[in-house]
Amino acid sequence: MATQISELVLRVLFFAAVITACVFMPWEFYIAAIIVALLRYFFVLFVTVRNARRLGEGGLIALHFLYDFIEPLLRLFISLVSHRKNKQLWA
Fold it and tell me: Phi first, then psi: what are they for 49, rounded to 5°?
């Protein structure tokens, strides 16, 4: 559980750093941030394609990149909803 949360926080920080570098830093940092982001997506694509081939799920590769951006928001929403006072636990 803690590993999943730390991975999620690091991913959000990574995207925030790339966006910050692209908006506020000089062009050298902009190019470096874009290269690092592309390298990350190259490795993510490599692992995703490899796993999708093993599982026979080739149609899900393009959706993974959308999920990569949306997952932090989904987890935040789920954590906010699950901490209500009158929550019903799923046994």
Answer: -65, -40
